Amino acid sequence: MSKFNQIGRNIPKETKPSYDMEGGKCFEGMLRDRFDKSYSLSAHYYETDDNLPKRVTDMILSGATDDLSDLVRYKKDGEVYSADENLLEQIQKYQKMKGAFPILNSDWQLFEKLVQRMLELEVMNLKVKDFLDCALFDVCYVWDVSGIRKKCIFDILSVVEQDGQKVVVGFDLKLSRSVSGF
Asked: Within its chain, how far is the Cα of 51 from the centroid?
């Protein structure tokens, strides 16, 4: 609040990017990709080999993508060491994907299963899939309380019929690191 009072707007605390954070965004993107015509998962994420070294994703997260080729070791004759052939292949795949973030194959498969589970979940006697069939995404809503302007952005906003009345339902998607807790 002190920062808000000093400069007159809300400055969220900067969060350090992480693979887990990108994984959560990928999960949300997988769900969204099925229902939002303006969203393309392939523009943001792609499935990659489980052997992708953590240092590659760390460098991508830090923005040091120009240095990725420096990770590959070459012999004196210019050939790539056999131990680094997969690494070179993954780096080339990343560069070809124009900056989309690599998600490990095992995580990709897990996210797809979680998306399937989520679509079958019931909320207010409707499956989540039914809400998403008529949903809007990234909906900004502004209102006033006692002269104070408030604002939020819904990940998903859906209007459905319930007992003859229209009901507005907002969703904020999150991915739990614990699969059992999902």
From this structure: 21
Judge residue 22's burial from the number of C-beta atoms within 10 Å of its C-beta, 0-12 exposed, 13-18 middle, 19 or more buried: buried
3-state secondary structure 20-77: HHHHHHHHHHHHHHCCCCCCCHHHCEEEECCCCCHHHHHHHHHCCHHHHHHHCCECCC
Query: Across the strands, what pairs with 161?
Result: 166
- Residue 4 pLDDT > 80: no
pLDDT in tens, 31-67: 999 999 889 999 999 998 888 888 888 888 888 777 7
Return the bridge partners of 80, or none.
74
